[in-house]
Amino acid sequence: MIRKRLPALTLAATLFSSSVALADDVSIGAVFPLSGPNASYGDVFMSGANLAAKHANEDHMLSGDLNVLYEDSQALPQHGVIAMNKLVNVEEVPYVLSAFTGVSKAISTLAQRSETVAVNGGGVGPDLAALGEYFWNVIPLANNEVGAASKYLVEELGLKRVTLIYVDDPLGAGILNELEKTLEPLGGELVEAHSITPSAQQFSGVAARVRSSNPDAVYIASYGAQQLQIVKQLRDNGVDQQIISYSAFSLPSLQALPEAKGALYTTQSIDWDSTDPVTKRFVDDYRAANGKTPTSYVANYYNAVRVFALLAKELEAQGKDVTGENLLAQRKATDKFELVGGSVSFQDNGTLLAPIQVLEVTGGAGEIKKVYAED
Amino acid sequence: MLLLQLILNGLQVGAIYALTAAGFSLIFGSTKIFHFAHGATFTIAAYLFHYALTNLGLHWTLGVAMAAGGAVLFGILLDRFMYAPIQRHEGSFFTVFVASFGIGIVVENVIGMVFGRSFISVSTSLSRSVELLPDLYVSPLVGLAVLTSLVCFVAVHMFLMHTHAGMALRALSENTELVKTFGLSPRRLSAYAFALGSVLVVPAAIFTASSSGLNPAVGHHVMLISLAATIVGGIGSIRGAAFAGLLIGMVENVALWQVGTQWSEALTFAVLFFFIIFRPSGFFGRAAVS
Amino acid sequence: MTAYILNLVVLISIYAILSTTLNFIIGYAGIFSLAHAVFFGIGAYTSAFVAMNLTPSFFVAIPIAMVLAALTSLALALPALRVRGEYFVAASLGLQMLAVTLFSEWKGFTGGIGGVIGIPPVEIFGFALVKPWHFLILTLVCLALVIAIIQRLVHTSFGRSLKSIRDSESAALAAGKNITVIKTLSVVLSSSLTALAGGLYAFYMAFINVESFMLATSVLVMAMVIIGGTGTILGPIVGAALLMLLPGALSYLSFLPQTEIGSIQQIIYGSAMVLLMIYRPGGIVSPKTRGEAA
């Protein structure tokens, strides 16, 4: 575990020291959970961002080297704001990668005030679409994901009665809202919704409640270590129904959990075998370095950094400064971005749309069951 | 049937709380040390058990031995190298509490660095529930947890009532000076109390490791509950602590019948708060000191 | 760089207000509260609510927050009057856990776990403090004011009564002190000044959520007081500065593995608590005479 992290760490460490030395270099920031219970997400996000910076530098897209400066949020809003303050005020970066719904919401005010672009590639709370002009999302938000999940449950599997277990935060509340909205028109029904605290660890009681409502499927809206505990305890306590969740289930430790086998989850759809040159290079290099297929999180943060490189390259060509304000203007002026997964465009609210796929946990990389086009 | 199921769940959780609370109460009652790091002992025992089974591939009996050894060692070391020096020069209640809290933080983070911060659990077929009655699921672990707790309590009771060391421990909680005049060493007795109190968390830790699973912060919640149980049960009464622990586990689960899980912790602490204000001596306790 | 230092100084000052007010009840009244973050939270939420719904004026939002905190602090004063030692710690712990649940569930007021975003900049006589410089001055003035109030109080007969209660409640009673009134007043005063820190925090961060007002914060502030030194004026401020500088200082040590920094920071502050209690229970800044500290 420690050994595996080392290359990324040394890279981060060297980036830290070198950022002071070379004035020509372009730095962007990242507020990721690097410690605490969600640190494993940080590792995944970092691998994507680092790969994109490496590619941009190999291609000499910018006049200087592109660096990513990492700050730790522990996935907590207050730490996120302190980290963002440091990036904006000390490093004076024009562009910051963000993750987690709570942290993203917390830093959005600072992003707006300091005219710094904040880009989220991990949090999927639906209200992330409404955090101001300087807050962008390179990930489809939960409303897209939940829609696809509902459709698959009702139309493909005939599972109509759904019970939800959700963490009572903006993300969970968003998913609850979307399930209520999407199930009914399809002829489904949200039977019960159980809210839990982010620190809860005992779910045998919830399992009993779920069993007694006897749904066709159980939707889990949690993240990190907690979702593993929920899955294990549901299965241990005799809940045999179909489990379904959103992209947080792409976490490798969940994929490896024996009790999670057969569970469904949604992510944005990226065709890893695509012949499109951007996607192919990303997938090939990631496989060469890590020996496995990337997940959509890796791709999202690769894309987030790539969007910056594309915009900054264009600004440099026009002789403009790479500031948050100019980046925003340039994004609005750009129709299409060539990213991993194909050619995409931003909506007016700064959020990317992407097709959604439904996958099954198999213990390996997850088996794709169906792909829904963006709507 | 749901209610019956929740009561059964409450029994399992309550048994775990009762064991940890009894250990805390035993230590606190006899040595007057507010051992907040009791939760850390729980975490250490649970992770050692997991390590022995999953990483070393040992038989579960060896895992239990390792967990017990680790817990007892941790308890005795803390008593000797942290609490004893503090008590020597001042030992106000709060000084002890702060140091104990500090060591709890250290343990949680060291465990996170050594064993990783994500969720782990001991995989065993025993945690898998079977349908006992229609729609009533019970895992063999529930029975084991309840049985083990009963055995532990009987053993502790026998020890305290019928052995020399046990009687001395009870005497220590009554009057330190008296113990000294009888030629017994309070320091040695204190080590006994820590060893016995720490070993009581081991079954609880093992059941948690195999049923709900572990993360480095797992001891935190258990500690808060033990503290609440000790006070609600009455300080100095092991029986009271165990009873209150069981009750809290029950309430936490049965409350789900009517309210959401997010209220269960608040419910426990509301009960604690009102107990302290209106009946600080608890169920079985002596009158609250000053 | 200056902006970063400004940012740190503002946060240190806010936490210094918290540790100073906690020290007032721990160090002088002997009330070991683990619920300090509750009043910090009430101050922050109330100020944010007033700022967003009524006016962001400092002289409206902060006083309302302080009054509300003073009223709710009676819930802490009640157990403080009835029990001491471990019972009171447990009661304050219970209050803290209850408050966290309420903060998470009362969404109309607190925004739940998602929190309150977009709190407007604070205004003083219609002048909005947007620049970090201005805010720093405001925070420092508030800190100075809090220290002055507590310093003065400690040296009045009220302060002497407090200390006599701390040292021996029965002796104070025999000396004819009105323990109920004195204890209640000290809790109310400490809590309302804590709410001032909460208000500053809300305006400064422009975002608050329940994670800033949980048990961990109460413990952090308690550690600041203990590590700095209880029963002194300087101690809590030194403690606040040390603990707030620790994370920043660690992140500049590039040889430390980045993913472990959070843990290392926690381990350092946990160990500091243990070692200080063993070797120097009075804290870094010990009171002049030992008699005063015990």
Q: Outline the biggest β-sheet of chain B.
A: 2 strands, antiparallel
The structural domain count of chain B equals 1
Q: Which CATH class of chain B applies here?
A: Mainly Alpha
Query: What is the averaged pLDDT score of chain B?
Result: 84
H/E element order of chain B: HHHHEEHHHHHHH
Strand content of chain B: under 5%
SS content category of chain A: alpha/beta
**Quaternary structure of the protein:** heterotrimer
The share of residues in helices of chain A is: 40-55%
- The CATH class of the largest domain in chain A turns out to be Alpha Beta
Q: Mind telling me the C-alpha Rg of chain B? A: 19 Å
Given as residue ranges, the uncertain stretches of chain A (5+ residues, pLDDT < 50) are: 1-23
In the CATH classification, which architecture of the largest domain in chain A applies? 3-Layer(aba) Sandwich
Strand neighbour order, sheet with most strands of chain B? 1-2
Structural class of the helix and strand makeup of chain B? mainly alpha
* CATH topology (level 3) name of the largest domain in chain A: Rossmann fold
CATH superfamily name of the largest domain in chain A?
Answer: Response regulator
Termini separation of chain A? 40 Å
Got a strand count of chain A? 14
Transmembrane segments (chain C): 6-26, 33-52, 58-80, 87-104, 133-154, 187-207, 213-230, 261-279
Membrane topology (chain C): Multi-pass membrane protein
Subcellular location (chain C): Cell inner membrane
GO molecular function (chain C): branched-chain amino acid transmembrane transporter activity
Commentary on this structure:
Chain A has 375 residues and is of the alpha/beta class. Chain A folds into two domains: 2-139 and 273-353, Rossmann fold (3-Layer(aba) Sandwich), CATH 3.40.50; 143-269 and 357-372, Response regulator (Rossmann fold, 3-Layer(aba) Sandwich). Chain A has helices at residues 2-21, 39-58, 77-91, 101-114, 142-156, 170-183, 204-213, 224-236, 252-256, 277-290, 296-317, 324-333; strands at 26-32, 66-72, 95-98, 117-120, 135-137, 161-167, 189-196, 217-221, 242-245, 264-268, 337-339, 342-344, 356-360, 367-372. Residues 1-23 of chain A have low confidence and may be disordered. Chain B has a single domain (2-278), classed as ABC transporter involved in vitamin B12 uptake, BtuC. Chain B has a two-stranded antiparallel sheet with strand order 1-2. Chain B is globular, with a radius of gyration of 19 Å. Chain C is mainly alpha-helical. Chain C has one domain (2-214). Chain C contains 14 helices and four strands. Chain C has a two-stranded antiparallel ribbon. A two-stranded antiparallel ribbon of chain C has the order 2-3. Chain C is globular, with a radius of gyration of 19 Å. Chain C starts with a helix and ends with a helix. The interface between B and C is large, with 46 and 43 residues.
